[in-house]
């Protein structure tokens, strides 16, 4: 199984503010949907609650320490091992938030990073990556338009074995 992290980051590695995204970038949501469709996804409880519902067409696994937590349409996990045991398919996607990325990073083999070339006010951050340990597989410039107001790029990295 390939463990992949998928994240959008601002110029300062910011990923969230007040349990929400500090930007609106519909093309990034479309990219996330296209790449993760049909796969298992792992989200932390706070991240799941900020979205408010399971992402359709994917096996949603919510990681929490609350043994009484319930989320309709989702599988609940209480540890990294428990979450991974519930995954199906060749590739699983870690969708955050900050602490979930930090916990899974040692196990992560691929990174899908949307780099947004603008600074934002953030209170949650993606862990610092030592890119010397990663090989860039692809980069694609996103389309800036009336709904996507920032310069951004879709990067895919693979951990060097």
From TrEMBL:
Pfam families hit by this protein: DHFR_1
DHFR domain ranges (all copies): 2-159
Key words, A-Z: NADP, One-carbon metabolism, Oxidoreductase
EC code(s) of this entry: 1.5.1.3
GO molecular function terms noted in the UniProt entry: dihydrofolate reductase activity
Pathway in which this enzyme or protein is active: Cofactor biosynthesis; tetrahydrofolate biosynthesis; 5,6,7,8-tetrahydrofolate from 7,8-dihydrofolate: step 1/1
Catalytic activity, reaction form: (6S)-5,6,7,8-tetrahydrofolate + NADP(+) = 7,8-dihydrofolate + NADPH + H(+)
Family indicated by similarity: Belongs to the dihydrofolate reductase family.
Known function: Key enzyme in folate metabolism. Catalyzes an essential reaction for de novo glycine and purine synthesis, and for DNA precursor synthesis.
Name this polypeptide is given: Dihydrofolate reductase
Native source organism of the sequence: Bacillus bruguierae
